[in-house]
Design goal:
Layout (H helix, E strand, L loop, with lengths): L4 E7 L1 E2 L6 H4 L9 E4 L2 E17 L6 E12 L4 E7 L12 E7 L3
Antiparallel strand pairs: 1-7, 2-3, 3-4, 4-5, 5-6, 6-7
Length: about 110
């Protein structure tokens, strides 16, 4: 039976001791090597793809980098799409920048 992608769009909690500093040296967010979602811990085994999403600036015609996307495979075999928001959604969520967008169970 083929695996199906499930829409999640919920925050994750990165393990602050397991950030990829190589990404940070390029001005990108430090992709967490480990994170928690719904009280379960996941470890990144492989980055399958990465891309960036831009949008128009609200104060002019410039383009603004909005999100950094990563498609990853976890150690347990799940494929997940994560994204990092460059600007927080609100002041209440100022520290919540990492989100789990979709998840596909291992075949």
């Amino acid at each position: 039976m083929p695996s199906t992608e499930q829409f999640i769009c919920q925050p994750i909690t990165p393990d602050k001791d397991a950030l990829n500093t190589a990404h940070m040296s390029r001005g990108e967010p430090g992709l967490p090597a480990r994170f928690t979602w719904r009280d379960d811990e996941y470890t990144v085994a492989e980055i399958l793809a990465s891309w960036k999403e831009s949008g128009k600036c609200t104060h002019g015609s410039e383009m603004y980098l909005r999100k950094h996307w990563y498609e990853i495979r976890t150690v347990c075999g799940k494929v997940m799409k994560l994204y990092f928001e460059r600007k927080a959604r609100s002041t209440k969520q100022a520290k919540q920048r990492w989100w789990l967008y979709t998840i596909t169970d291992a075949p």
